[in-house]
Please model this.
Amino acid sequence: MGKFFAVTVGILTIVSAGIFMFHVWWLPPDISVLGAGIDHQLNETMVASGILFVASQLALAVFVWRSSGSTGPIKIFPGGATPMVVIAVVLVGIEVAVLTLVGSKVWAGLFMVQAPANALQVDVQAEQFAFYFRYAGPDGKFGAMDPSKVSDANNNFFGLDPANDTTARDDIVAATLAIPVNRPILLTMHSRDVGHAFYVPQLRIQQDFVPGLVIPLHFTATQTGKYEIVCTQLCGLGHYNMRAYVEVMSDSDFAQWLKTQANQ
Amino acid sequence: MTTPVRETVAKLTELKHQPPEGFWRRYVFSLDHKVIGRQYLDLALVAVITGMVLSWLMRLHLGYPNASIGVLGPANPSQMTPEYYLQLMTMHGTIMVFFVLTTAPFAGFGNFFLPIQVGAEDMAFPRFNMMSFWVTFLAFVTLVASFFVPEGPALSGWTAYAPLSAIGKEAGPGEGLGQTLWAISIALFCVGQLLGALNFIATTLDLRTKGMSLARMPFSTWAWFTTSVIGLIAFSVLLPACILLILDRVAGTSFFIPAGLVFNDQVQTHSGGSPLLWQHLFWFFGHPEVYIAILPGFGIISHILPAFTRKPLLGPKVLIGCMIAIGFLSYTVWGHHMFLSGMNPFSAILFSVPTLIITIPATIVTLLWIGSIYGARLRITAASLFCLGFVSVFVSGGISGFFLAQPSIDTYLHGTYFVVGHFHFVMGVAAMFGIFAGTYFWFPKMYGRMMNETLGKWHFALTFIGVYCIFMPMHYIGLAGNVRRYSSFTDDYLQPLLPVHKFMTIAALFTGAAQLIFFYNLFRSRFKGPPAPPNPWEATSLEWSTPASPPPFDNFGGKHPVVTQGPNEYGTAGAKDYVMQAGGEA
Model:
């Protein structure tokens, strides 16, 4: 039974690691400027922790194979506990230090720098169970939001007051996030009811909506196409069905899209 | 050294030390730590069966979303509604984390064995101990009762993020009375565990028998002691958090609810609260809770392994140091659950560093276990197999922590099945393996009978392969972007991953069926198992020096054991290859 355990651990380890190595299931292709840094960080971590995983599982398997049922004199691991402490502190310590240094730069690029000045700002309202996107329109200004004006019945998802607020009159509200390719996008994210999240795997970006906060998020898409936006923060019964699309378009298509939306 | 506190405690415990008379005092409202320990374990058994059945229903629905299986919903049995799925998920998580992973390895085994392992007659505060169990029991009843209220149990996950959990019925089904009962249940649970933690700490510090210095305490005692200190701080934060949540729900306060929320086109009257406050309070408890679940497993494995390797565990002091370090660090990492919560992004880096550093003591401990198997005379039993399995699944689950600890990678993996696979391996399965190892190892002492070893080995083999088939694929589909907490994956980009879900469902049912072997073995052995010899595993610690199995009411039959060495004396040269802590006296 000890040998059965050793063989089972060996097989499980090789199969588990092999499926990772050969990317049987893997991330969808990256379509963002900063995604490459995330993928690189993930690959580095995969290699480093993969080696640790295989080495420690196989060591366990080999030691169990050799010692199960043994009646010979016991042997203490050469050097006792010291090599264990040294291996852990040095190897894991170096891995931790490197991952932190490199990873912090990736993180900082995503979340700790301001969006570039030429970024297109899109205001996002999340609600049970939909996302709505708002563009400032020709005046470049967003109308003020008033919770008491919010009405799903009247399609006033942001609580605008176009009758009295001139800046709100030309705001464009859509259920799809249309964006031009290769231009920085700044989302200002807020929720009107419970927590939600914005996740587009191809953009390698995910961010919670927190009621009461306006949270900025910026990214640049590098390929045109249509991708799903899914909610990843449990928000109620319709959580599984809360989604929208991001449509990455050429500049001219985007200009045309804005025009069409403005006329609706 | 005798201190006034120790004298007082000793007197108090002597006062109560009359064996109980009558059914109620002996079996129900008992002050005996052994009865209370068994009560906790029985509660955990009921809870784990409940939690496991809930997971089967969820997996059935995920694997076969369109199949007509007549057990899937209360209203329409052939179909599971999205809200019912989330309610099952919430109850599964809550029951497993609180009423299984906390009660069994910590409150259950700890209650039974901590006093015996330090050579005490009982816990320092037997009445608090009894109260601890019955408050926990009440908490469980309250939680289960929420299945039977209108709109059903809570739906907001075991993390109960506000404002979904705080606002009330307006937030949708599953946010009515069920959510209030959830918060009351968890608040009660905190009270129960606080009483337990106090008891464990006082007993460890004040009731150790002669010669039982701190350095001579078994690893399991060290783990329960460390866990108690963690629990004392963690539960005393979750308790007020739950009280505030209850107030938000029933008294109109706004601790976790900001102004201007709109439900059904109606502006809510709440204002001034912060959803992030709940997240901070919850995770300040929640991350240490992970270690409350797993550290007793560390202790149990380290305690049991030497009895089957027949050699001392490598680096005993290093191991204890690592457990304490992990306990300390567990309070500095809670923000890694909140990288994407909208808190200041700089704090993500600050929380990431200790999260990565905590892998160092965890790695040391793992290597000490693996190194201790080198050159051993390994005896293969159900208990030792679950120890070895523990090491394997702990490695598998721990490794994926490297990914999630880094905010830049968490940006992609947060909210996916990668996280589900990670925590099920490292805190669910590993902790369960610790419970199984403890059960097979201590059963003879607790019930005076042996469990069936052949059934135990089958149980291990099927479970070990099964858990890898359930939880390893979760990492793969997580990498592919499969989001968690979804009741359905139809008609979207997740469609290609459905075959994997089907595979995991089959694996879950198969592994679940393997647990029937365990339940059968457990019940049959309790009544019909062969009588246990006094020290069946040739182990060293004090529980194997009691005059009977199960031990008499005062544990050592009126004697006070005198400890002459530590618990790690295996592989010694002599007639026997081990030396018992109490020498040859008992």
The beta strands of chain B are 262-263, 266-267. Chain B touches chain A through 108 residues (CB under 8 Å).
